[in-house]
Design brief:
413 residues, mainly beta, 5-stranded antiparallel β-sheet, 4-stranded antiparallel β-sheet, 29 strands, 2% helix, globular
């Protein structure tokens, strides 16, 4: 079975000279502290109960009540909001954006006091754009969000990009419903490439499985759409359903994953003729999708449901990624979302099927790329790794199962 279009052995990866390695090494800085809390954006499986944000204590020291203990929850207004994406990293201001994609309502959680979180703001349509999906912080502290859709005279049209303040007030917006965009291109996720004044935007339609293979390049300074490029189709149709773009550690190289389990390197982002090439491919399991990746230094972590695994790639040479580690879960587990601790020492995993109500923790070595399940993270009295959000009397009321999606580590001062 073909796994990667290009493969390097670990021995071959050692050909980089000491001079090259030194040139790539960032300037020394104060090590980031371990996170004290884990935040889980959670749907109520009971439609009569509210959706909520759950806070877990993940301090691994004597001050912690218990490693993995539930601290509290905060419910959001409405029912069946469909909790989906949060910001992927905890912002410095402690205000976390999270969308309820089903209802179109999004929420801003004030997490400056983790033991007493609160809903600081709520918003829906902005500037005629509907259903925000992904959120990314800008260098100025504001937030850039992709909105999937909007109404026009023909019907439902592509949405656009919106810049918001941390209090969710509008700064500026730009519609994707114009040339050279296609009406089937709905802004899904984004990567901000500040150094070259670009935003890379993927276009999967949350309502359709047959989305295009387009990736858009927007100019960050004025939110104008500059180019639309097609990902190569791939022998297993890997180019379809563009999913998550990620900027690598050099601040300018972008890899784009697809739900069809391809990995693509973008070339010429700042030029007149940008392009894409497939550099890796994973097998697909019917009814599942390769999903949310994270970047940790020279490593790229991604979920691969066909293997029930989270896979770690070395992307020191992004043209030739190679696997260095993986953690394999249960055969019916479908990992989907992964989030990484600010110091890159732990990874949280949520997903579907057998993982629907379960949260797993893994340890990560940012030097070697080694990934392993954290057996310490488990419910009291249980030998099973991870937490099942079932049979719990929630602090906000009720005891119905919770279905977590977006998961974020706290950022300590």
């Amino acid at each position: 079975m073909r796994i990667f279009r290009h493969t390097l052995t670990l021995a071959a990866a050692g050909v980089l000279s000491a001079t090259t390695l030194c040139a790539q090494r960032p300037a020394p800085s104060r090590p980031l502290a371990s996170s004290d809390y884990l935040y889980l954006w959670t749907a109520s499986a009971d439609s009569s109960g509210p959706d909520f944000l759950a806070v877990y204590d993940i301090r691994d020291n004597p001050k912690a009540e218990r490693y993995g203990a539930l601290v509290t929850t905060v419910a959001v207004p409405g029912r069946s909001n469909g909790p989906h994406h949060t910001e992927h990293d905890m912002p410095a201001d402690g205000r976390l954006f999270a969308n309820g994609f089903r209802s179109g309502q999004s929420f801003v959680f004030d997490l400056r006091n983790p033991k007493a979180p609160r809903v600081a703001a709520q918003f829906g349509d902005i500037a005629g754009l509907m259903h925000p999906h992904s959120f990314w912080r800008l260098p100025n502290g504001n937030l850039l969000s992709t909105f999937q859709m909007q109404h026009d005279s023909v019907g439902m049209a592509p949405g656009g990009l919106v810049e918001l303040t941390p209090r969710a007030t509008l700064v500026r917006s730009s519609s994707a419903n114009r040339a050279p965009a296609s009406r089937s291109d709905r802004p899904y996720s984004a990567a901000i490439v500040n150094d070259i004044d670009r935003v890379v935007v993927t276009t999967t339609d949350m309502d359709k499985a047959d989305s295009t293979r387009n990736v858009q390049l927007w100019r960050l300074s004025d939110l104008s759409l500059q180019h639309t490029i097609e990902l190569p189709i791939g022998s297993q149709f890997e180019g379809y359903r563009s999913a998550e773009p990620r900027v690598l550690r050099d601040g300018k190289t972008v890899l784009v994953s697809t739900f069809n389990c391809g990995l693509f390197l973008l070339d010429g982002l700042a030029g007149a003729a940008p392009s894409a090439r497939m550099v890796a491919s994973f097998p697909r399991k019917p009814g599942t999708s390769c999903a949310v990746p994270v970047v940790a230094g020279k490593f790229y972590l991604i979920t691969v449901p066909a293997w029930s695994a989270v896979v770690v790639l070395d992307v020191s040479d992004p043209s030739h990624p190679h696997e260095v580690s993986r953690v394999t879960l249960g055969p019916d587990d479908v990992p989907h979302w992964i989030g990484i601790e600010p110091n890159h020492r732990r990874v949280v995993i949520t997903g579907y099927q057998a993982m629907k109500t379960r949260v797993l923790m893994a340890t990560f070595n940012p030097t070697t790329g080694a990934l392993a399940l954290d057996a310490r993270f488990h419910a009291a009295g249980s030998a099973e790794a991870g937490m099942r959000m079932e049979g719990i009397a929630w602090p906000h009321g009720g005891n119905g199962p919770g279905i977590p999606h977006g998961a974020v580590f706290s950022r300590e001062p």
